[in-house]
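Private note to self, pasted from the team thread so I don't lose it. Backbone tokens:
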């Protein structure tokens, strides 16, 4: 976990700052030092999670435009907002990065979602080391989930979530894509993929080495002699450079073969 980012969040909490903490292309939104929303490119967006609960794209657009009244009445909004923040924090806190804070108005989710940085860090630590096992957190958008062709175990008991993820694995989509398509958290799908790999139902990701770049093509030196000199028409051509007459029998056999193919 990025200790530096955790320290920054705790300092913003101590100062009760309100604004946006940019973490690369991602961000934490804070209200009086508490995290109210988090955006991470590796996790399923809250809008997609809410879609599974009946929210529409128009509802989300209205909330982002300053009219969240309809979404704030959604029964599962608070739970899904919390899951979304914890999901993003698991990946954002996994690697050190430069964070920049800028003041901004409170996020529209502030009335229903406020998580202290201490609680956020505690939950990330509870979920375990992001780099553990054959599926590190940093690989969720890099390697496809490939089911095994032959199951070695005779009996495997799976949960509903594991079955859902295994059915969505098509050898092309990675964990992030599967999570978005199913409307599930990325951490939940990552956990299922880790468990399916341990059960021998999913192939461990294999890191393929990139081919070495071809050496630059070297042009011949300017003063190098040409590969073949032109022979003047009035010059005598050496015997080894003259065209040898083609055997007539070869031409006859070639013509016959072409006629059979026609």
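Design output:
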């Amino acid at each position: 976990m990025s200790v530096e980012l955790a320290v920054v969040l705790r300092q913003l909490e101590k100062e009760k700052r309100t604004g946006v903490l940019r973490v690369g292309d991602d961000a934490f939104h804070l209200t009086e030092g508490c995290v109210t929303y988090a955006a991470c490119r590796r996790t399923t967006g809250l809008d997609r999670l809410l879609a599974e609960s009946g929210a529409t794209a128009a509802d989300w657009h209205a909330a982002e435009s300053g009219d969240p009244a309809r979404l704030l009445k959604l029964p599962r909004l608070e739970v899904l907002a919390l899951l979304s923040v914890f999901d993003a924090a698991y990946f954002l806190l996994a690697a050190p990065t430069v964070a920049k804070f800028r003041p901004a108005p409170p996020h529209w989710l502030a009335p229903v979602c406020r998580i202290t940085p201490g609680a956020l860090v505690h939950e990330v630590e509870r979920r375990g080391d992001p780099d553990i096992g054959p599926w590190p957190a940093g690989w969720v958008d890099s390697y496809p989930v490939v089911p095994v062709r032959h199951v070695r175990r005779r009996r495997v008991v799976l949960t509903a979530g594991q079955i859902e993820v295994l059915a969505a694995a098509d050898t092309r989509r990675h964990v992030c894509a599967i999570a978005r398509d199913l409307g599930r958290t990325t951490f939940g799908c990552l956990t299922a993929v880790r468990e399916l790999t341990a059960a021998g139902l999913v192939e461990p990701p294999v890191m393929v080495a990139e081919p070495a770049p071809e050496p630059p093509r070297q042009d011949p030196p300017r003063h190098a002699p040409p590969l073949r000199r032109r022979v003047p028409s009035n010059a005598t051509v050496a015997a080894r450079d003259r065209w040898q007459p083609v055997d007539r029998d070869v031409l006859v056999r070639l013509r016959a073969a072409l006629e059979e193919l026609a």
